From TrEMBL:
Gene3D superfamilies: Putative cyclase. It comes from Epidermidibacterium keratini. It comes from the Bacteria. InterPro entries: KFase/CYL, KFase_sf. GO terms for molecular function: arylformamidase activity. One of its GO terms (biological process) is L-tryptophan catabolic process to kynurenine. This is Cyclase family protein.
Length: 318
């Protein structure tokens, strides 16, 4: 299905905004990944001209300490077997969402105990609804469109720092697409480049050690206008190099939902795939050099029944 209702034609949600539930059926657990049809994937493959592959994952454990201290660092163990003839390894304390990651539709609900398509916490805890393995079976492949936000903000004459809280408006996102020469198509995977990865790399360890106590990043703004824009361009996913795709910190608490933490709309209402902390600097450098801001993106999330998130396992090909 590639024809979606407009945002304002969706039913109103009980705590605000519009609900994208049941657009793909009452039992759907893919969300907007349904837009990655055979035709969409085949068209994306036509974008491959040079065979240039860009790995979009940060190293496991590369963020030290993790930006979210609830997600620990992986512990890697190497085993030597058969007197040095073969090797094996395993990981302890591996949090799939501690570095480059996909958020499944079981990650954040539209409201408490109410996840995409009405799934309840008990169903998610039991591994019955919205887990990452549904995307793993389908596969994530399609046209990636790169929004170079630092360049777009510079062109618009707006002050910008990749270490500041800079919420991108719907107009900012639209102008970034224009700057890249992009016309959105249903199923697009929006690649949101903020420069946060390079900003983080420039910080010394003393600064990094303090970041989990409170840090700021650019990202999509928390507003209904932004939600409307993202639904109406009919993208299937957004991946970004920042902590949460949205500008951070988000706003939680009574009176702010569902837009203060816009994950509630994008994942919980729309069923949109979000990818966070992606390694985008090399891809964006190539886009700037060639003037080509689109590519084929291919990801293989973990085949983890009941899983809430996954390592990114993503490449872009041009």
């Amino acid at each position: 299905m590639t024809q979606l209702p407009n945002y304002d034609d969706l039913p109103e949600g009980p705590i605000g905004g519009r609900l994208g539930w049941h657009v793909f059926g009452d039992d759907d657990q893919l969300g907007l990944i349904n837009l990655l049809t055979d035709d969409v994937v085949a068209d994306a493959a036509k974008l491959i001209k040079r065979g240039k592959v860009f790995a979009l994952d940060l190293p496991l454990g590369g963020l030290r300490p993790p930006l979210n201290l609830k997600r620990g660092l992986p512990e890697h163990h190497v085993l030597t077997n058969r007197g040095g003839l073969s090797m094996d390894d395993y990981y302890d304390n591996l949090y799939p969402q501690s570095a480059s990651q996909w958020d499944s539709l079981a990650h954040v609900g539209y409201q408490a105990d109410s996840f995409y398509n009405g799934a309840a916490v008990a169903q998610i805890e039991a591994g019955e609804r919205n887990s990452i393995d549904h995307w793993a079976r389908h596969g994530l492949a399609g046209r990636a469109v790169v929004l170079d936000m630092p360049k777009a903000m510079e062109a618009a004459g707006k002050p910008y720092s990749a270490g500041d809280h800079v919420p991108f408006s719907a107009d900012d996102l639209s102008k970034a697409a224009q700057h890249a020469g992009i016309e959105h198509r249903p199923g697009d995977i929006v690649v949101l480049y903020t420069g946060f990865e390079e900003w983080y790399a420039d910080q010394d360890q003393a600064v990094r050690d303090k970041l989990p106590d409170g840090f700021t990043t650019p990202g999509i703004g928390q507003s209904e206008d932004v939600a409307r824009y993202l639904w109406d361009i009919h993208c299937s996913a957004i991946v970004a190099d920042n902590y949460a795709v949205e500008a951070w910190p988000a706003t939680f608490g009574e009176g702010t939902a569902p837009f203060g933490f816009i994950h509630q709309m994008l994942i919980g209402s729309f069923g949109m795939a979000l990818g966070e902390l992606f390694h985008l600097s090399e891809l964006v450098a190539d886009c700037r050099e060639t003037g080509v801001y689109e590519a084929m993106l291919v990801a293989a999330p973990m085949m983890a029944p009941g899983g809430i998130g996954s390592t990114a396992n993503t490449v872009a090909i041009k």
